[in-house]
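Run GMC family oxidoreductase N-terminal domain-containing protein through structure prediction, thanks.
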Amino acid sequence: MSSIENGEELEFAIRAAANQARLKAGLRGHYDVIVCGAGASGSVVARRLAENPDVQVLLVEAGGSDEAETVLDPAQWPLNLGSERDWGFMATPNPHLDGRALPMSMGKGLGGGSSINVMVWARGHRSDWDFYASESGDPAWGYDSVLDIYRSIENWQGSPDPAYRGRSGPVWVQPSRDPSPIALAMLDAAEEIGIPTFDHPNGAMMEGPGGAALTDTLVRDGRRQSLFRAYVHPWMDRPNLTVLTGTTVRRVIFEGRRAVGVEIVHEGRISTVRATLEVVLSLGAIHTPKLLMHSGIGDREELGRVGIPVLQHLPGVGGNLQDHVAFCCIWEYREPVAPRNTGNEATLYWKSRPELEAPDLLFCQVEFPVPSERTAARGAPSHGWTMFAGLARPASRGQLRLTGADPASEMVVDANMMSAPADMESALACIELCRELGNARAFAPLVARESLPGPLAGDAMKQFVRESAVTYWHQSCTAKMGRDERSVVDASLKVYGVEGLRIADASIMPRVATGNTQAPCAVIGEQAARIIRRAHRI
Ligand SMILES: Cc1cc2nc3c(=O)[nH]c(=O)nc-3n(C[C@H](O)[C@H](O)[C@H](O)COP(=O)(O)OP(=O)(O)OC[C@H]3O[C@@H](n4cnc5c(N)ncnc54)[C@H](O)[C@@H]3O)c2cc1C
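Sure, done. The structure for GMC family oxidoreductase N-terminal domain-containing protein is below.
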């Protein structure tokens, strides 16, 4: 970066900090729209609404700033796990995983998940979006419409492909630069076993049976470009966008059936802020349903169990919890190969059975060993690479439950992974494909041996599945969009049965998207902002 750019950036940082300090000092009692949660989707909603200078937007975030090397240096992402930037959810012990309780990290702080994640940009499959359109009954959620949104939000840095990729949007997307030889070996291995490779993973590859490509990442000039950085950061000097960190939303306040504001904990005190137009929940797939329930919206029996008065019976709140489960297969290097960029530079999608309409397996290569706490004991190497071999279309569904009426109480996260028998069949196919890939000739110059799982058969491989399973951190679908009795929001993301309340985050996915989830969350944010602007002519 030139010294002029450096100087401009410094000047902007000073101006933005002064503006935000002034806005916080003069915190208003009401805003036009209150966006709760500055994560992947909330950042998009807040920025798009604040583009209208006449609209006063309050963006409330429980966590803190994203100014930290562990956030901004792409290689340091693993250091955020278990830190103060992680909500640190734990799933309940799972009998389908041999009693293991999995950590379920989610981002806490500006950018939410997009500030601690692995920076992969993956759009989802054509069939995901067409499914969302059919579930919601609105073609605006269909693939063709969403493709336009993706083109408009990307600032794509790879070879031009105007049918799929845009170049003038806020989200800087680049292919992995100067990738590790192990990532290139993965593409060669894919071709060797008959899986096609693509110039990039976010176009034709996600319209058919799948394929392999170098990963697209949200990294610019060697720094993480979270969705907060892409959308809100450049707007921090605007007088109509207040970004309030260290502030926890406790519940939505209603007058009758209309959401009129939120109750927050700010500087240790409980207070309320009113919204003249709308409240938007973007707290992620665990805290959005939690907040709904603490505000009286949820399953009548579940609320009654802990003594929360029911405002609106919606039995689907907190149900339908989905996530991608991954099984970590590991190969030992002949000679250590240092990870490059984000340490995850190649990706692959494929089908476990030829008759499927879309890929149901998702593979991300990680350039260091990542055993589970159980499989580490089986002998993971000190130098090696891992395939995060995962189920892109899991059949299992989890459930969130309340532990008390107090908004400060924690949720029970019953992730229930691998409970559906079909998932074990897919997992075995997934690991088989993973081993075929990892043991292909293309890896031979770099790899000494397969460390995990090795050639296990029958029950032994099923036990490996149970011991190696981890989350891909794609928690979603707990306040799904749709039209059945388990749906929580309609096609316009409005919560059923009340007014003035919408949800914009991973909770609304009717089914988890086929790939990594932050790009779909950006689209959900864009859709929400468009809908709100249209609804209020703002
Ligand atoms: C370790 C990790 C790695 C991942 N890797 C990838 C990847 O490489 N690519 C990818 O596409 N996806 C990845 N994901 C998933 C992706 O980041 C998430 O799907 C995405 O961030 C979800 O967006 P969201 O808007 O639903 O919620 P979030 O981004 O989680 O945002 C929710 C926000 O709300 C805030 N909040 C919650 N409760 C409250 C409250 N009561 N009051 C105020 N604020 C609150 C949170 O602090 C957070 O900032 C990863 C996630 C993790 C955790």
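The mean pLDDT is 97.
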